Amino acid sequence: MPWLSYRKALNRALVDELARDPAVFVLGEDVRVAVSNVTAGLLKRFGPDRVLDTPLSEQAFTSFATGAALRGRRPVIEFQIPALLYLAFEQIVNQAHKFSLMTGGQTRVPVTYLVPGSGSRTGWAGQHSDHPYALFAHAGVKTVVPATPEDAYGLLTTAIRDDDPVVVFAPAAALDVRVDLDHDGLAPVPLGVGRVHREGEDVTVVAVGHLVHDAVAVAEELAGDVSVEVFDPRTVYPFDWDGLAASLAKTGRLVVVDDSNRMCGIAAEVLATAAEGCDLVVPPVRVTRPDGAVVPFARGLDLAVQPDRAQLTAAIRKVLKQ
Amino acid sequence: MALLTAVAAHAPDSDVGLYRTVRLIRRFEERAVELVRSGDIIGGIHPYTGQEAVAAGVCAALRVDDMITSTHRGHGHVLAKGADPARTLAELAGRATGLNRGRGGSMHAADFGSGILGANAIVGANGAITAGAAWAARQDGGDQVAVSFFGDGAVNQGVLLEAMNLAALWRLPTLFVCENNGYATTLTVTDAVAGTITGRGEAFGMPSVTVDGMDPRAVLDAAREAVDRARAGGGPSLVECLTYRFDAHHTWEHKARVRYRDDDEVRSGRERDPVEIQGARLTCDERTSVDADVEAVVDAAVAFALDSPHPDPVGALDHLYATGMRARPGGGG
């Protein structure tokens, strides 16, 4: 069977949706030459009316997409780096997200914000390395963080077809993940439905994005000693709370590994919800970036603020000791 | 009834039609301010009195299927573009029958059926939305034009300048209408704007003119030229309308007693009243009949708004997601 990389899966989803629905178009910086490779081949196949290179005007082209959506289009914006979302936060959270309610349901804003290379950990320093999915989940914008190529394809497809704004964070550390699968089996993945990557009995590890692969690796290392269940929510908002509850009903122990800042991060929400509504036998533990982290440049410093496998292993050991 | 029909038969761009629009906006705003004082409109409004000529003149140059986006001072644009005054006032009063089902209020009034893509409470935010809507309309093969209204304060917002660049670069059928009323809340335009407002448009290669924003016919003439150019594929224009806000920035000022304009200035500003300027172009009979018609419309709007039910709090977050997704409640149950 052929290999499919995460990056190529995003590209395939764009190709398939552009071909399927004439309302879909792609816009962003350097999308025609496909600097990120995610938009490779789109210009040649769909032409300049469906693939728009924009000036470096993040705020304007983000709301431009909103205006096009108000006229029935389904824009997909590619952001070259996650920090650009801070520039366009007003346009996404305060404009696009609010239109449906503020107008009393007169309109919808089906824009997809695609962020390949989020949370870079390869020396991009303070202003290129954030992974700000928690901000959008907090604001109520549908937020997706796929871990695998098939989920990247399926969730981006669903995001484009969704009638609300959706932010799709494709983690930098997942872009080169490849799987061996039948391409004909690629299909949309619903928002808000998690995936158990590995069944286990002793502890539930909730992992987001590329950290799913770390969680599975740690689970494999511990196999025979500890039975770890790896639960990937796939979308952080809406979150699959039923899926989490079902896993915790089995294990009663919870560790969350989340590549966002500790304060008000997704891990905090998972812990709080589990504490409110699930039968935990011991206090849960989270592994995250530090509060308010600014990623330093030097390699060792960069890695020092990222959640890693050693921390996750220690966290699993901790909840099992009690 | 025959009288109302006779008035309604006049086209919006006729002298009678322009007068009817400025008069309707004026009386609507005056009655809305009364409803703020009586407590029927919660939170107050940004009155448009004095600036009516801009909305009336620009919208008279538009077709029903053209689009506008508006500002936090948006009732005038919404009425001039054709929204039902009764449902507009019901929206201001937060009623279930309002344009936005009581979810938008004064600053977000929208009526997609009339081409009103929403008033917007963030200064300068609507320009790029307008550009996107104009682009999509052109891609559909239509010749609709999209108008962005904004105030003098907005010309210092980066996103508006970015939007002008996109619109000019891609020759979008867009009209940028600046209502220069001299104040960004309380800051005078001379203390806020370096260079000129038309210079902002000229920098992007856009035809940019300044017109008398107190005269509906002058605004109409400039808007028509710009709209015709946009419709014919000639790209965007900027029209700066020199106008004057008769009332407060927000009705909150009535209580706060903020002072930033002296009485002489306000008095002399009010001397050039768009209602009087346009009214002078009508016969006495025409004016009387329009006034009576408008009065009946606004009376009916007030009655409709105050008689309308309040929205059911159970549905407070209805329409949050177009897909119907329900958010988790916050109430700790």
Tell me about this structure:
The complex is a heterodimer of chains A (322) and B (333). Chain A is 38% helix and 20% strand. With 322 residues, chain A is α/β, with parallel strands linked by helices. Chain A has two domains: 4-185, Thiamin diphosphate (ThDP)-binding fold, Pyr/PP domains (Rossmann fold); 195-321, Rossmann fold. In chain A, the strands form three sheets. Chain A has a seven-stranded mixed beta sheet with strand order 3-2-4-5-7-6-12, sandwiched between helices. In chain A, strands 9-11-10-13-14 form a five-stranded mixed beta sheet, sandwiched between helices. In chain A, helix 1 packs parallel to helix 8 and helix 3 (58-70) packs parallel to helix 5 (89-95). Chain A starts with a strand and ends with a helix. Chain B is an alpha/beta fold and 333 residues long. Chain B has a single domain (15-297), classed as Thiamin diphosphate (ThDP)-binding fold, Pyr/PP domains (Rossmann fold, 3-Layer(aba) Sandwich), CATH 3.40.50. The A-B interface holds A 49, 54-55, 57, 59-73, 75, 90-91, 94-95, 99-110, 140, 142, 162-164, 238 and B 98-104, 108, 110-112, 117-118, 120, 122, 125, 127-137, 139-140, 146, 158-159, 162-163, 165-166, 169, 317-323, 325, 327. Chain B: It comes from Saccharothrix texasensis. Chain B: InterPro entries: DH_E1, PDH_E1_Alpha_Subunit, THDP-binding. Chain B: One of its GO terms (molecular function) is pyruvate dehydrogenase (acetyl-transferring) activity. Chain B: Its cofactor is thiamine diphosphate.
